[in-house]
């Protein structure tokens, strides 16, 4: 059963070839069998999943099902799920049972999906390898010595190992696209504001965006359909009609103008990755696309700007974890200051502390103008680069990361080298534009990802282009050995 894509499972459920209870039991068995070694789930919710599966079967029988009814999903442990632990990968929230449901998970539940559990992630989504999780590193199903990427590394590993039909992720600087690239999945970061952030534990609010992680673009279209839409509870949610994301998947690509940003093919790009992207370019040409070289001249400033803006917002957002209202609280505090200090010192891991310190420094009097304000100006320049590029081309094609997945532990002592793995993904978050990652080849047993970026609200076009590529290639059909 798990060989099928989400779209294939949906058909099987609707034709009654399988039931949601059978499918859910099948995935729960696989989680039991394989997840000890992978560590992709923080929490598994078997009773709830089976109860939801029974309800889904009743809905399928009654004839009022959606394409997602009965589909077993996993959610990044950053989405609040009512009555279920929502840890955000941190000791700080290890004891936190969310009292309410995030808009994303609520919409997916309304569509009839089944929640298998909550997936592992970098602590508070700060990381690119899933090694900063309080619950331990996640292994890449393609090669267990390697990271699955991050911060949505548990979601990526769980989908790649077929321990769920698809999963949710979030992307602040690449956290959907980079792990999708490292595990041969298709992952979509929509336009900022397309999906509600309500009930997502905030990291950097002006950058955070949820999205689907699945096997194919077709599956991402089905998931985005349920996830997208205006939500008055999120002030950054955009009141823009939600198109039918599956309707345009089969449009031909004739005349499509694809831009290759020359800054993304410069030094630091691994040769196997460069070769895979060159082959994808040829594939797109054979499907009728025109290729142009373009420039994103300020791209090299993206990492420094991001590592001011994201920590600045994080230092503010994470001030709510103080041991008073919810989450971890230190033992026997002597007074309120001691409570704050020890709760935060004991509850947060090293990377989170590093970012809070950097952020607080960048926002402090005397440094605000020199760092934070400068970074915001750079952010505008990066946005302007994209706007100028989209006057010449319809979409931009580039790698998702400079290299395939690295080894567990390889970059753990060098945060800056870890930050550099997001060099191709961060620009889209700073500009707020959408991007889709999809598999484009392999270097040995490790997947290579490519990325398509488009103008605001171009998700239908990105899904269409990715789908056409997947109709003509088979990278996305491969399964990691042993799963
Ligand atoms: N959350 C993300 O998108 C991941 C990014 N690598 C970060 O640590 O900020």
From TrEMBL:
<dbReference type="GO" id="GO:0030956">
    <property type="term" value="C:glutamyl-tRNA(Gln) amidotransferase complex"/>
</dbReference>
<dbReference type="InterPro" id="IPR023631">
    <property type="entry name" value="Amidase_dom"/>
</dbReference>
<feature type="active site" description="Acyl-ester intermediate">
    <location>
        <position position="175"/>
    </location>
</feature>
<comment type="subunit">
    <text>Heterotrimer of A, B and C subunits.</text>
</comment>
<dbReference type="Pfam" id="PF01425">
    <property type="entry name" value="Amidase"/>
</dbReference>
<comment type="similarity">
    <text>Belongs to the amidase family. GatA subfamily.</text>
</comment>
<dbReference type="InterPro" id="IPR020556">
    <property type="entry name" value="Amidase_CS"/>
</dbReference>
<dbReference type="GO" id="GO:0016740">
    <property type="term" value="F:transferase activity"/>
</dbReference>
<feature type="active site" description="Charge relay system">
    <location>
        <position position="151"/>
    </location>
</feature>
<keyword id="KW-0808">Transferase</keyword>
<dbReference type="GO" id="GO:0005524">
    <property type="term" value="F:ATP binding"/>
</dbReference>
<comment type="function">
    <text>Allows the formation of correctly charged Gln-tRNA(Gln) through the transamidation of misacylated Glu-tRNA(Gln) in organisms which lack glutaminyl-tRNA synthetase. The reaction takes place in the presence of glutamine and ATP through an activated gamma-phospho-Glu-tRNA(Gln).</text>
</comment>
<keyword id="KW-0067">ATP-binding</keyword>
<feature type="active site" description="Charge relay system">
    <location>
        <position position="76"/>
    </location>
</feature>
<protein>
    <recommendedName>
        <fullName>Glutamyl-tRNA(Gln) amidotransferase subunit A</fullName>
        <ecNumber>6.3.5.7</ecNumber>
    </recommendedName>
</protein>
<keyword id="KW-0648">Protein biosynthesis</keyword>
<dbReference type="GO" id="GO:0050567">
    <property type="term" value="F:glutaminyl-tRNA synthase (glutamine-hydrolyzing) activity"/>
</dbReference>
<dbReference type="InterPro" id="IPR000120">
    <property type="entry name" value="Amidase"/>
</dbReference>
<keyword id="KW-0436">Ligase</keyword>
<dbReference type="InterPro" id="IPR004412">
    <property type="entry name" value="GatA"/>
</dbReference>
<feature type="domain" description="Amidase">
    <location>
        <begin position="22"/>
        <end position="463"/>
    </location>
</feature>
<keyword id="KW-0547">Nucleotide-binding</keyword>
<dbReference type="InterPro" id="IPR036928">
    <property type="entry name" value="AS_sf"/>
</dbReference>
<dbReference type="GO" id="GO:0006412">
    <property type="term" value="P:translation"/>
</dbReference>
């Amino acid at each position: 059963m798990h060989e099928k894509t989400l779209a294939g499972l949906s058909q099987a459920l609707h034709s009654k070839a399988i039931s949601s209870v059978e499918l859910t039991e099948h995935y729960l068995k696989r989680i039991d069998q394989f997840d000890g070694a992978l560590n992709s789930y923080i929490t598994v919710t078997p009773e709830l999943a089976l109860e939801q599966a029974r309800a889904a079967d009743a809905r399928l029988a009654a004839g009022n099902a959606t394409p997602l009814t009965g589909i077993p999903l996993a959610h990044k442990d950053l989405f609040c799920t009512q009555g279920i632990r929502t840890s955000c990968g941190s000791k700080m929230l290890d004891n936190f049972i969310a009292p309410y449901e995030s808009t994303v998970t609520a919409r997916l539940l309304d569509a009839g999906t089944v929640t298998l559990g909550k997936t592992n992630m970098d602590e508070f989504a700060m990381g690119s390898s899933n090694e900063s999780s309080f619950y331990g590193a996640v292994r890449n199903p393609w090669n267990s010595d390697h990271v699955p990427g991050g911060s949505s590394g548990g979601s990526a590993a769980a989908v790649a190992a077929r321990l769920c039909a698809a999963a949710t992720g979030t992307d602040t600087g690449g956290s959907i696209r980079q792990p999708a690239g490292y595990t041969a999945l298709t992952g979509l970061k929509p336009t900022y504001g397309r999906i509600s952030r309500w009930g997502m534990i905030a990291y950097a609010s002006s950058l955070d965006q949820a999205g689907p992680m699945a096997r194919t673009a077709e599956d991402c279209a089905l998931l985005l359909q349920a996830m997208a839409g205006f939500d008055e509870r999120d002030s950054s949610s955009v009141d823009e009609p939600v198109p039918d994301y599956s309707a345009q998947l089969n449009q031909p690509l004739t005349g499509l103008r694809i831009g290759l940003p020359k800054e993304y093919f410069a030094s630091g790009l691994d040769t196997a990755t460069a070769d895979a992207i060159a082959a994808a370019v040829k594939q797109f040409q054979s499907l009728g696309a025109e290729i142009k070289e373009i420039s994103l001249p300020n791209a090299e400033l993206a990492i420094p700007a991001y590592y001011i803006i994201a920590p600045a917002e994080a230092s503010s957002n994470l001030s709510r974890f103080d041991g008073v209202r919810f989450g971890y609280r230190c033992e026997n505090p002597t007074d309120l200051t001691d409570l704050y200090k020890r709760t935060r010192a004991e509850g947060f891991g090293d990377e989170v502390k590093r970012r809070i310190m950097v952020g607080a420094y960048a926002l402090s009097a005397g440094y605000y103008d020199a760092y934070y304000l400068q970074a915001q100006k750079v952010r505008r320049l990066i946005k302007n680069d994209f706007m100028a590029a989209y006057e010449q081309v319809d979409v931009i094609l580039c790698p998702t990361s400079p290299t395939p997945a690295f080894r567990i532990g390889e970059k753990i002592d060098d945060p800056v080298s870890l930050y550099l793995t997001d060099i191709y993904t961060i620009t889209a978050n700073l500009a707020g534009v959408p991007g889709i990652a999809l598999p484009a080849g392999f270097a040995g047993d490790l997947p290579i990802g490519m990325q398509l970026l488009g103008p605001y609200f171009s998700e239908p076009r990105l899904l269409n282009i990715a789908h056409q590529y997947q109709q003509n290639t088979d990278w996305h059909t491969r399964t990691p050995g042993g799963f």
